[in-house]
Amino acid sequence: MNIVTVVPGIQGEVDRATGCINWQGSKFGNGYARKWIDGKTVLVHRLVLESKIAGFLGSGYFGCHTCDNRSCINPAHLVVGTAAENTGQMIGRERKTPRRKSIPGIGILSIAQLREIQTKYLSGTIKNHLAKEYGVQHETITKILQTNIPDNFTTVSPNFLGEIQDSGCIIFQGSKDGPGYGRYLKNGKSKSVTRAVLAEKLGYELPASMDACHTCDNPSCINPEHLWAGTRSQNSLDASKKGRTQGKSHPLSNAKLEWEKVREIRQKLAAGKRMKDVAQEYSVDRKTIHDIKYHVTWKEEGQEVPLPRMGGHLERKLTFAQAIEIRERIQAGESLAKIAQEFGVSRNVISDIKRNVTYRGELN
């Protein structure tokens, strides 16, 4: 990995194929690099332009990418332009596609229904009849008939707009969070699009202990065929197998440990030292040591990742019979803290047993 300093305090990774210098820190959902400065979030590519053109930050001009890579902070790929020039570049390079709000009827009708309306109108059905048939206003029908719907746009149940990619992914066209996962509002609260799509596919809501996982590793994908339900441990193991959790893989990572210390930790654990003691020695929590021991994180290239036992945990301190007893005592009203102390485990272990996160399968 080739990390270079663009301006003091701003670094990025060089892509030798394109010449882009890709920001490795926090990004907005749309991919633009961001940095927290003096109590507010600032676009990193604008900071870079400010270093080239004094006073740019305070101007009303846009920072445009000649490379069309929003994560790029290479000064050679950045130019100043007006809003009209920026939009003109987007259209000229075919980067501008209709937004969710620019397609009338979305949220009420599917893309297939919108195309049906356009086909029926061309076949002679009048607007009033179409409005009545599809339960929308006459004005909405007029706007639908005037809209050019891209061939690769589709609707994923329950009615999310997506763009079909050559890879088979369907990219959500609404709001996204920092990592790129789709979000939507329901009863005034922000909800996960992937969880909603997977719930529709499975026919039931996912419990809080389960994740909506991607086989394609694309956070913005909402193709139901690319989604599966897994525990947090299964999701972490899947990420590790695919090389998506490599510990401190570059200088900008916030990992607390180095590979040298990780190997020391594994040697001490192999020699019989307790995870609790090792965690205290290296000033990290026990879960960090647990994940290092079983290669959930800090996985060496080519290493196989051990699979967890049924229930999601790699190491058990209790038997299934004890788990049954614990559930019965919880139902009888005993406190989790008291039970945890008696069995010599943490309160979290007892909480997971109570919620059927662990010690499932043979009990149900």
Describe what is shown at a glance.
The protein has 364 residues and is α+β, with helices and mostly antiparallel strands. It has helices spanning 44-52, 83-92, 111-122, 127-134, 138-146, 193-202, 232-241, 259-270, 275-281, 286-293, 320-331, 336-343, 347-354; strands spanning 3-7, 10-14, 21-23, 34-37, 40-43, 62-65, 78-81, 153-156, 160-164, 170-172, 183-186, 189-192, 210-214, 227-231. The protein is flat and about 75 Å long.
Whole-angstrom Rg: 26 Å
Query: Helix-strand pattern, N to C?
Result: EEEEEHEEHHHHEEEEEHEEHHHHHHH
Strand content is 15-25%
Instruction: Provide a count of the helices.
Output: 13
Helical/strand content category: alpha+beta
What does this structure look like?
The chain is of the alpha+beta class and 364 residues long. The protein has helices at residues 44-52, 83-92, 111-122, 127-134, 138-146, 193-202, 232-241, 259-270, 275-281, 286-293, 320-331, 336-343, 347-354, and strands at 3-7, 10-14, 21-23, 34-37, 40-43, 62-65, 78-81, 153-156, 160-164, 170-172, 183-186, 189-192, 210-214, 227-231. 34% of the residues lie in helices and 16% in strands. Strand 9 and strand 10 (170-172) form a beta hairpin. It is flat. Among the domains are: 3-92, no CATH class; 245-310, no CATH class; 320-354. The strands form six sheets. It has a three-stranded antiparallel β-sheet with strand order 1-2-3. The chain has a three-stranded antiparallel β-sheet with strand order 8-9-10, with no helix packed on it. Helix 4 packs across helix 5.
